[in-house]
């Protein structure tokens, strides 16, 4: 039984969104992994990333279009991933990097501010200035 047109349209839209999500996950992984590291560790990280990505994308497609995985779903995901990597990846990578850097700075400052009274107290006990 052929699918109705609105169902097919939803499947294509969600497949395109899945490709964009995969691209964003790849940018996040690229930022976390960095450029250096031992080759064996990078291979293990790559395998774990693709397993996690496959689970995340399958779960997304399961909830949005009942995990209908026809050939055009893979084609739409590939096309949207290619477009994302060519057009949006550099900008999104910079935004993600800024968010992560800002989060690190906020956590570091929060820790220093929260630990300052304790450091003062223990320094006075030990007669340190």
UniProtKB/TrEMBL annotation:
A Pfam family the protein falls into: Spore_YabQ
Superkingdom of origin organism: Bacteria
Keywords: Membrane, Transmembrane, Transmembrane helix
Alphabetized InterPro entries for the sequence: YabQ
Residue ranges of the TM segments: 12-29, 41-63, 69-87
NCBIfam families: spore_yabQ (TIGR02893)
Entry protein name: Spore cortex biosynthesis protein YabQ
Gene that encodes the chain: yabQ
């Amino acid at each position: 039984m052929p699918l109705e047109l609105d169902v097919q349209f939803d499947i294509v839209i969600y497949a395109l969104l899945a490709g964009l999500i995969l691209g964003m996950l790849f940018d996040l992984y690229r930022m976390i992994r960095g450029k250096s590291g031992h080759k064996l560790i990078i291979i293990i990280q790559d395998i774990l990333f693709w397993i996690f990505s496959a689970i995340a994308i399958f779960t997304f497609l399961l909830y949005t279009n009942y995990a209908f995985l026809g050939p055009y779903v893979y084609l739409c995901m590939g096309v949207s991933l290619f477009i994302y990597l060519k057009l949006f990846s550099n900008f999104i990578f910079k935004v993600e990097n800024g968010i992560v850097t800002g989060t690190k700075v906020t956590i570091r400052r929060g820790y220093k501010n929260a630990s300052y009274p304790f450091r003062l107290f223990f320094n006075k006990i030990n007669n340190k200035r």
